[in-house]
Structures are given as C-alpha cells and as structure tokens.
Amino acid sequence: MDSSTVTRLFRRLANHHFCHDRTRALPRTARQHAGSIRNLSSAPRDPTDGSSWQQRTDNFPSDKTNEYQRYPVLTADALRTRRERPRRVKMLLRDFVEDSLYNPHYGYFSKNVTIFHPGMPFEFDKIKDEPELQKILGHRYTQFEDKLDEIEQSDTRQLWHTPTELFRPFYGEAIARYMVANYKLSLYPYHDLLIYEMGAGNGTLMLDILDYIRNTDPEVYARTKFRIIEVSSALATLQMNKLKTDVASKGHLGKVEIVNKSIFDWDSYISTPCFFLAMEVFDNFAHDVIRYDLVTKEPLQGSVLIDSQGDFYEFYSRKLDPIAARYLRLREKASQNRKYSTPVRDPGFMQTLRYKLPFAPNLTVPEYIPTRLMQFFHILHTKFPAHRLITTDFHSLPQATVGYNAPVVQTRYQRRTVLVRTPLVQQGYFDIMFPTDFGVMEDMYRAITGRLSRVMTHETFFQRWAYAEDTQLRSGENALLNWYKNQSVMLTV
Question: Entry's SUPFAM superfamilies (predicted)?
C-alpha cells in the first residue's frame, strides 16, 4: 500500500465516530501498567441458508443481503497466495482475523511489525522507581524509532515490546530455571532437553534460555535442542541472523532449528517429551464471533462481508460451522462445574433493558470464542503427545471493544496509538488482541489433551522462578512483578 493510500485510510479512520486517539497509550505489552490457527476440518460452509441476519446496529448500514447471497465464501487458507486484500467475498470472522494478522503478503505480523529491542539490559538496581523506569523506557523507544526512521521513515510502523525484551535476561532465565528443574526431576538422563517455542519474535527468549543453561549447567546444555516454529518469514530470518551476531550467539547454532511454518500446518509426530513455549501468542489467535437470539437464546455465528468498495458488514447465521459448534459443545461439557460469563448467562439489568428499547439490536452483544486455541490444543494432543506446555498471556485487556472476551483493536500512526471499536478493520494495519479466560481454557486443555495443568498469576510464577532482586528498583518496587498483573501462566504438570 503506497503512502497516499495509507494517508487516506487513516484520515478516513480518524473521521469515524468509533475512533479514539490515545496519545499517551503505552506500547503493546505495557498496557496493563497504563490501566493499573488446521488439523480439524476447516472447510468453508455456505452461510446463505435463509436464517442469516445482517446485524442491526446504531449506524443503520446499507442492506447488503443481495451481495451476501451472491458472494463466494473464502477461508484464510484460500487467501494465502493473494497479494491484494479481497473484495466481493464473505468469510467467517476467524478467517478474517487470521487473514488480517497472518496473510504472507499483507498481514500484520508478516509486513508491518517491528519488535522493540531496548539495547543494553536495564540496570534495575540503579533506577529510582517505576516512573523513572517509564521515562527511561520512553526515551529508548524514541531513540530506537529515530534510528529506524534514518533508514526508512514510516507513519504506520507497528512497534511494541514484550516482557522478554524489557526484562532480559532475567525473564528468560526464570523460564530456563523452571524447565531445567523439571527436566532433571523427571526426564534426565533418559531424554534430551527438547524445547519448542512458537512465535519467537526477535529470538531473545531463545538466546537468554540457551545462555543460562550453557552458563549454569553444561551437562544439560550438551543435551539441549531448541526448535522455533515461526509463521513469519521475516521474523524467521531475523531470528537466524540474531544467532549469528556475535561469538556467544554463534555457539548456539548447532542447538537451534527454525521451522518457518504455522503451527496449524504442523504435520510431524513428535513422540519425545518436550517443553512447548507459547508466550503471548494466544492473544493473537483468531476467534469466531457468536451472538444469541434474545428470545430462544440460540447462538448465531458471525461472518464478514467485504463489498466491492472494501467495506465490511456483519452477518449472522443460525447454522454453525463444525468448529464453532464443537467449541460450544466442548465448553459446555468441560466447564460444567465452572461459572463463566456469556451474553445469555448474565446479561445484566442495563443490558436487558437496552434490548427492549426502540430500534434496539436484534441480537445480544457479541461473544468472541477462541476456536483457533481449541485447534492448537488438538495439535498438541495429536502431534506432541508428550509435551509440557508453558504459556503466559493476558486474562484481561483494558479498552477492549464491546462484547464478551472482546479484543483490543489498535494501530499506530505517526507514533501515536489509535484504538477502534471493531475488529472489522483494514487487513494488516491493526493488532487484534483477545484476552484469554484461563479457567475455561484450562478445562478445554484438560478435556482435549488429557493432561493435568496448573494456572497461576504472572506474579506468582516469577516470584518462585525468577531472582526477584534482579528486577527490583531502588524504591523497593519490582517491575517484573508489578507490570503484568493482567497476565496468567498455565503449565502442564
């Protein structure tokens, strides 16, 4: 997309009433501190079955029923070879989200993302308090982006950081300490220490883990193998280049294999016990959207129509595709003893009253269901039966769109963060991030894999496995423990 088209896009975005300009919004994974994808059948279904509704909204959009009847159904898989964003098509929301984030030619993670690297690790013991740390972090962000602009200026650069980068090497060392302790307890010396990491970003976590094991336990290091599963070709190249940057990193080359493919295309059977790292990846797994009939409480599944102008419209069908139907059945069974929220379980007085007002919506507010995450658990069960999952992600997100388990949808323009109120946005230019209900997901994980698991807070995990004094500020505050209180950790036990 050329610069003039980008400018028109964001000018148009800024004129919409749902656009919120957050000039002080923090980078992607600092958002908590600011507010204190194929093994299962994914064949396209034809949703034109006479029970499809165009959702009534406050905007009273044009009637697109005729186009909805005519346009073909496409999946994200079918769009992989497409270099242009599709028009005159319809697709399930999960395919729209996956195409937006992961299309090889225009997807968000394929083309537009730069992961912030702060340079030298922070000397936490020399920093006065959290406000000073925020100031230093902001200054390093500015320096980092200024250097990028010297090479190529971009108004739409998507820049964010991860706790791995912010707390290196201590974050990676804590993960390594946990794995080595559990490896020695039950697998050593009968098996090698085999580690898989999905979505490794800059490769920093990999290097910090390998550095720690090499420095503290040479015998375990001699039996360590690290494999990255990376969907982005650009990031896979970056990770390999990072292995070659200095003598210390080059020493790990024989330990590392980078597999450039989606986990949902994985076709190898790994019978060997392994640790499987999925750090902050659940939030970008594609979700389906469900709304419920206000009278019958029947679920309807959402699709996205993209018209000839590239505009988006929601449609809902009473005919659920097999994946969404399976998710709802499995959740009902696996979480029958757990209280969880849906629009028809606890709508609340004000929401119930709103439905009775003139021109009220004809369906409930949306519920976003993590069907891709369910498929990921299925892959772990069928392809990595002896895995031990280590995952961390957000259990809540501030400034989310309307609905249950609703995403935060945001982009950056001219170094300013812009949040919008819908996931139906220009493909490739917006981060679409969903929170994870770890209680329900633990039930689903156990039901699908048959493995036992444990969920804890981010703070609890790192209090146990990190050396807390490494990230403690002079004020006594501990940024590693304080900045991610909206994150949880799930472990296979």
Answer: S-adenosyl-L-methionine-dependent methyltransferases (SSF53335)
**Pairing relation of β-strands 113-115 and 312-317?**
unpaired
Is 101 exposed, middle or buried, given 0-12, 13-18 or 19+ CB atoms closer than 10 A? buried
Using DSSP's 3-state secondary structure scheme, residue 86 falls into: coil
Using DSSP bridges, classify how beta strands 299-306 and 416-420 pair: parallel, antiparallel or unpaired. unpaired
Put simply, whether the predicted model's pTM sits higher than 0.70 gets the answer yes
**355-391 tens-digit pLDDT:** 666 666 778 999 999 999 999 999 999 999 999 999 9
Rounded-to-integer distance, Cα 485 and Cα 481, Å: 7
What are the Cα distances from residue 418, in Å, to 114, 414, 430, 468?
Answer: 17, 10, 9, 34
Residue where the block lists tokens 């580690």: 195
What is Dmax (Cα atoms) for the chain? 71
Pairing of strands 274-279, 193-198: parallel
89 pairs with which residues across the strands?
A: 306
How far apart CA 198 and CA 277 sit, in angstroms, is 6
- pLDDT, greater one: 41 or 318: 318
Strand partners, 225: 194
DSSP letter assigned to residue 119: S
Neighbour tally for 8: CB within 10 Å: 11
Pairing of strands 299-306, 312-317: antiparallel
Q: Which residues pair with 22 in a beta bridge?
A: 417
Q: What is the DSSP letter of 366?
A: -
Asked whether 322 and 41 are in contact (CB, 8 A), the reply is yes
- String of b and e for 60-98 (b: at least 16 CB within 10 Å)? eeeebeebbeebebbbbbbbeeeeebbeebbbbbbbbbb
Give first-to-last CA distance, the chain, whole Å: 47
